[in-house]
Amino acid sequence: MSRTRHRSIVNVGTTAAVAVLRACEGLITVAYLLRVLGTDTFGIWALISTMAAYLLVLDLGVVGALGRLLAGHRGASDIEGFNRTLSTALTLLTGAGVVTLLVAFAMAEIFPLVFHVPDRQLADVQLALLIAGAWAALYFPTSIFDVVLWSHERFDLSNLIEMPVIATRLSLILLLIHEGSPLSHLAGIGLAMNVATVVLTAACAWRVEPRLRPVPGVLSRAALREIYPIGVWFSALSVARSLTQQVGPTLVGYGLGNRAVATFTIARQLTAYCATVMLSLTQLAAPRAAVLFFGRHGDEQKILFVVGGRAATALALFFVGGFLSLGAQFISIWQGGRQDASFMPLVVLLLGEAFPMAQGVTYSILTAMGRHRALARFAMMEGLCTLCVAAAAVRPFGILGVCCAIAISATVFRGLCPWLLTCRLLDVTPSAYLRDAVFPVAAVWAAATVAIWLTAAEWPVRGWGSLIGYGALYAALYLPAGAFIVLGREALGPARSLIRRLRIT
Question: Which pLDDT tens digit goes with each residue over 437-459?
Fold first, then answer.
């Protein structure tokens, strides 16, 4: 096995493991915090997390542009250009960090004016907001080390760092956060774990590239000319994506109250876990897409688009089918029957995210082709559509109205529009793509989902044991058939090897 193939397998394996760990951490953390903090306080914490996410758009697209530029310098073996671009980005991001701290102070004063905060919690909530702002300010200048690993396709190192950090963060929350604990303690745990991640990532970045020389205060005109044509559109993309992701809890909290935020957060978090797994796996195609584009390998780009799209569709439908058939039982058991109202919002959000999640490879291809302007326009239209429709629907239709606005906007602007653009750029007809990448997988998915739904209706889920059993049955029905459709005869390779070894034995 070649070194490149071996590293690709390790990247995929560790990325999948980290995505699963993140989801498990989130499921345990949400259930635990809801129980010990209460619905109202948990809703306030969800809003604090939302405000912190808004701060991450202040990098003006530098982080997004930096990865593509460093990969290009590495491909050209230009270490001087690599360090020049890296140092310029460090200077810009340090300035963004200072601005972020100032905005965090203003946000801490404005937050109680917009959302309901009990007087006894006011000081604690403001301190938690400032700690979250400190984390965002730290993230900007230190993100260069993670980008260095990304540009060298060392996802395995990033994942190996994140695994113990996830376990440690979860352990600290379970040990230190109890009923009545201040939210500032929860924010402090997050800040401490992020600092540990930064230190380990920086050490790995220098090990991968010993010639790394980031110098703060350097502003190269050549690097600025490289960064900002791409960074401006990455910035627009980042702002629009952040608006789209955070507008839901913001409007729900403002229009319906903190308790409604908790219900909405359950549905949004489960959808976000699925999207995170998809993003973690499909982003592995980003460096390969860049190599194929700069190398002008048009036919291989088409293969990556269709075959990668088929694999992404299979995985996206796996999550959607699982929650459609077993999601109500899962939420009831997970939350002890306290948040059953979250199931219908979850269904709406998942159906809206199904096609966008399946286009993760498409996004990587468009990014490699330098189509940031088109992606930013799609994202801005999605954000504007989500904001307008959700704001109009939140009072008359409640949480479901907000979810429908999010789902429709995502399907159109993050699913259909990028997909149709890539079909045109690569000269792949939409009908051919649907025939080769979507319909075969969808047929298997529909059969497996309906079978599990009918079985669960006949023999209801009684607890975690039967729920896990149904989940295993769903995976056994869907995954082998889906793998055969995605991989073809190569999917039978492990089984054939096992049979040969058994015969020899």
Answer: 888 888 888 888 899 988 888 88
